Amino acid sequence: MTAEPHSPDTDEVTADEITERILALPGVELLVATEESGAPEVAWGWRFFYVGPDRRQPFATIGERDMAGFDEESRLDRPGVFRLNLELGRREFHRIFGYPPAEADERRASVDVSALDEVLPHPVYGTAAWACVLNPGPRSLAEVERLIRHAHARASERHRRRP
Questions:
Q1: How far apart are CA 99 and CA 104, in angstroms?
Q2: By the 8 A CB rule, do 85 and 129 touch?
Q3: What is the chain's Cα-based Rg?
Q4: Orientation angle between helical segments 15-23 and 141-161, nearest 10 degrees
Q5: Inter-CA distances, 121 with 53, 78, 91, 163, Å
Q6: Whole-number Å distance between alpha carbons of 143 and 118
Q7: 3-state secondary structure string, the chain?
Q8: What pTM value is reported for the model?
Q9: Is it the case that residue 10 has pLDDT exceeding 90?
Q10: Are 145 and 50 spatial neighbours (Cβ–Cβ below 8 Å)?
């Protein structure tokens, strides 16, 4: 999977470009959900990023379509829309959003999780300290790149502590 070249004339970043940025980090493994991988059909095509080959817990995912019946609020079925999801940990989640992940569900009504280019609590996994951004662009890209490194560092530390 190779990234389409990023055009300097546009601030849009593709899902393939984000994938390449994540894969450039040390020790990252990519699993694309398919029928052959044993993933449920609603997840086919989603990309899961892990540190290490054991693939115990992803630190990032990218989806380009809704998971029908489970996760449709982001409206990923709009043309060209994708969502990057990142596991931040409780402290970073609280720092960014101003409240702990445990409050994500009760505050969800005030968040438009279909908004583009904005770091938001994840619509399903916010309570587990996950954030998301649809189509990172000029408003969010610098923060997204920092958060990718943060999530990767957390996953790398978890991987180092495993026996």
A1: 8
A2: no
A3: 15
A4: 40
A5: 28, 20, 13, 32
A6: 10
A7: CCCCCCCCCCCCCCHHHHHHHHHCCCCEEEEECCCCCCCCHHHCCCEEEEECCCCCCCCEEEECCCECCCECCCCCCCCCCCEEEEECCHHHHHHHHCCCHHHHHHHHHHCCCCCECCCEECCCCHHHCEEEEECCCCCCHHHHHHHHHHHHHHHHHHHHHCC
A8: 0.90
A9: no
A10: no
108 vs 123: CA distance, rounded Å: 7
Q: How confident is the model at residue 26 (pLDDT cuts 50, 70, 90)?
A: very high
Across-strand partners of 71? 67
How far is 7 from 23, CA to CA, in rounded Å? 20
Q: What is the mean pLDDT of residues 18-24?
A: 98
Rounded distance between C-alpha atoms, residue 49 and residue 62, angstroms: 9
